[in-house]
Design brief:
This protein is an alpha/beta fold. It has a domain of 145 residues: Rossmann fold (3-Layer(aba) Sandwich), CATH 3.40.50.150. 28% of the residues lie in helices and 26% in strands. It has seven helices and nine strands, in the order H-H-H-E-E-H-E-H-E-H-E-E-H-E-E-E. The strands form two sheets. A seven-stranded mixed beta sheet has the order 5-4-3-6-7-8-9. A two-stranded antiparallel ribbon has the order 1-2. Strand 4, helix 6 and strand 5 form a beta-alpha-beta unit. Helix 2 runs antiparallel to helix 3. It is globular.
Length: 226
């Protein structure tokens, strides 16, 4: 899928952040092991600063997580790149993201995947994400205010489900909504409380779990906050 460019200079942040700043970030991501050039090009192009409050926008191209309110964070660029790399490696047509948050990970996915469905449990975050994604032309994204643990049964099955919050046990509803040979990518807590980025592949009614690397995410919570 070709990358989309906006022609609105206020969206691109002309004068707010230089291309050199973004290039340096991408260089750090490459040095840290991100190899998919499509992912790197997308992170270089897209305006991360627009997904933060103005007071934090000057830190947008640091490789660090940043607060977005409501006890939630904008994941560090390396983690966004790593999770996106795992998603696009599957060549998916339909992806479900659980935890829209600011909408930045959603935007990156939308540039590389034909259809993205995204669930957010906090109404204020969902509303802001809808507006940002609309302004940036992410027309292949559908958002819903809902408890992410229930998934999106009407839109299933999904080729990939991506969780952006950590669970100690995966909701059965999400596993059930994977298509055959579908993949769920999630932070998952082990018996001693360590979080691991984990890839779960469905083969019939069997699920194969693979731990990838240690991570740290906010917890996956239940319910909807209106």
């Amino acid at each position: 899928m070709p990358l989309r460019e906006t022609k609105d200079p206020t969206l691109l942040g002309v004068g707010m952040t230089s291309q050199r700043t973004r290039d340096r970030l991408v260089g750090r991501l490459q040095a840290a092991g991100i190899a998919d050039q499509r992912v790197l090009d997308t992170l270089r192009r897209e305006p991360r600063h627009l997904f933060l409050d103005e007071a934090l926008s000057h830190r947008a191209y640091e490789d660090s997580s940043l607060p977005i309110g409501h006890g939630q964070t904008l994941s560090q660029p390396w983690m966004v790149a790593r999770m996106t790399e795992l998603v696009v490696a599957e060549g998916p047509e339909r992806v479900l993201e659980v935890g829209t948050g600011s909408g930045y990970q959603t935007l990156i996915l939308s540039r590389l995947v034909p259809r993205v469905f995204s669930l957010e449990r906090i109404a204020a975050l969902k509303a802001r994400a809808v507006e940002r994604l609309r302004r940036l032309g992410a027309h292949n994204v559908t958002l819903r205010l809902a408890d992410g643990g229930h998934g999106w049964r009407e839109a299933a099955p999904f080729d990939v489900i991506l969780l952006t919050a950590c669970a100690s046990e995966l909701p059965e509803a999400l596993l059930d909504q994977l298509g055959e040979n579908g993949v769920l990518i999630t932070p998952l807590e082990d018996e001693v409380g360590q979080q691991w980025l984990t890839r779960v592949r469905r083969q019939g009614q069997h699920y194969e779990y693979q731990r990838l690397e240690p991570v740290r995410f906010v917890p996956l919570l239940q319910g909807v906050i209106r």
